[in-house]
Design goal:
Length: 217
């Protein structure tokens, strides 16, 4: 399996060149960026899309979080972020639609609002002439239930492999930044995020590329 070192998500030249090869005018490709919580998926995806300068649109998997009210109804609010707290079938259906754009038709994808802690429909417009969709999320390589439908819809998947100590530190700081008390954030990361991380890591060997950020902050 090919591997590439990426220094703190700042040396984007090689990755951008690889993504650009998928951005073929007149065709639609979908690039997935997977990895455990806190690995830097959204940062890498956003920087790639910015570097591609109009050739790509970012569609996050997190837009398919189930709403808080539905998680409460199902008794899953305490496990938010686990595979069964997303609409995996809906995500796969959107990817299938994105792979086959219709002339003149913009597809609207949902996004996740971290301030509201809720998905918001119709947030991301994907025009039909954009050649590359970049999607990122934890479970792009997961092979259970409807998640198994996702991998065949992606032309490439990159796995972002950050060391655990840095991931945990980032996750705690993210939760604190969005208003969670630090003791709560630390417990949530240890009990929930890291359980999900172990599940995500099982799919690592199904990636086309493993990206290892340098061991520094």
């Amino acid at each position: 399996m090919p591997r590439m070192d990426l220094s703190d998500l700042s040396d984007l030249g090689g990755l951008t060149a690889r993504a650009r090869r998928l951005a073929v005018p007149g065709r639609r490709h979908v690039l997935g960026i997977a990895g455990p919580p806190g690995a830097g998926k959204s940062t890498l995806a956003a920087r790639l899309v910015e570097a591609l300068d109009g050739l790509a649109v970012l569609v996050p998997m997190d837009g398919f979080h189930l709403a808080g009210a539905e998680l409460d109804r199902l008794g899953r609010a305490g496990r938010k972020g686990a595979p069964d707290t997303f609409d995996a079938a809906g995500y796969a259906a959107l990817l299938a639609r994105l792979r086959a754009p219709r002339p003149g038709t913009t597809v609207y994808a949902p996004a996740f609002d971290r301030t509201l802690e809720e998905p918001v429909a119709g947030s991301v417009p994907v025009p039909p002439d954009v050649p590359l969709v970049v999607t990122e999320g934890n479970y792009l390589l997961h092979d259970e239930g409807h998640w198994a439908d996702v991998r065949p819809l992606l032309d490439e998947v990159w796995y972002l492999d950050l060391d655990r100590a840095r991931r945990v530190r980032r996750l705690v700081e993210r939760h604190v930044r969005f208003g969670k008390p630090r003791p709560y954030a630390e417990r949530w990361v240890a009990d929930s995020d890291e359980a999900n991380a172990r599940l995500v890591e099982r799919g690592r060997d199904r990636a086309d590329l493993v990206v290892r950020p340098a061991p520094q902050d």
